[in-house]
């Protein structure tokens, strides 16, 4: 699956939270498929990593289950934002353990996204500076090839 296909899968998942195939509003539904677009994107990325062979589903399930137990001990999980934060933490740790991304790089990127978010006017799309995106892409490609 290409990056464009992964993005398309995530966009389709996000779209399903708002309308059905006929275009009818799903506001009457008790819960959307995903509360936030990034939840759908994270889900799509994880599925892509599994389908491409980068992540074993059984390893993913074991790690995510352990992470949910760990988070659940500290507080009651609501299945929304906290669930996907645990999902993200699991995926970051798994990719770091595989050597596909350095743990510090993930922390640095989180800080860059937070800074970009805080500097973005309400309602506008958040963007990282182009030079940071290019540097990140070059680093992640190198890490991906080294891990293979």
Q: What structural keywords apply?
A:
148 residues, 6 helices, 66% helix, globular, mainly alpha, single chain
Describe this structure in words.
The protein is mainly alpha-helical and 148 residues long. It has a domain at 102-148. The two termini are 17 Å apart. Helix content is 66%, strand content 0%. The longest helix is centred in the middle third of the chain and has 18 residues, at 57-74. The chain contains 6 helices and no strands. Mean pLDDT is 77; it is low at 141-148. α1 packs across α2.
Question: How do you describe this structure in short?
Answer:
The chain has 148 residues and is mainly α.
The N- to C-terminal Cα distance equals 17 Å
- Individual helix count: 6
Largest sheet descriptor: none
Instruction: Report the portion of residues in β strands.
Output: under 5%
* Assembly form of the protein: single chain
- Structural class estimated from helices and strands: mainly alpha
Write the layout of secondary structure elements.
Elements lengths: L2 H14 L20 H15 L5 H18 L6 H17 L5 H16 L11 H18 L1
């Amino acid at each position: 699956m290409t990056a464009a296909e992964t993005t398309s899968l995530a966009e389709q998942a996000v779209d399903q939270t708002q309308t059905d195939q006929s275009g009818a509003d799903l506001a009457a539904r008790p819960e959307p498929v995903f509360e936030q677009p990034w939840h759908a994107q994270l889900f799509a990325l994880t599925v892509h990593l599994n389908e491409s062979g980068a992540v074993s589903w059984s390893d993913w399930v074991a790690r995510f289950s352990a992470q949910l137990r760990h988070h659940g001990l500290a507080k009651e999980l609501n299945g929304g934002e906290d669930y996907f934060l645990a999902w993200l933490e699991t995926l970051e740790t798994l990719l770091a353990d595989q050597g596909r991304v350095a743990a510090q790089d993930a922390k640095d990127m989180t800080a860059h996204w937070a800074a970009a978010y805080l500097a973005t006017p309400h309602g506008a799309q958040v963007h990282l500076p182009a030079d940071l995106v290019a540097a990140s892409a070059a680093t992640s490609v190198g890490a991906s090839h080294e891990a293979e």
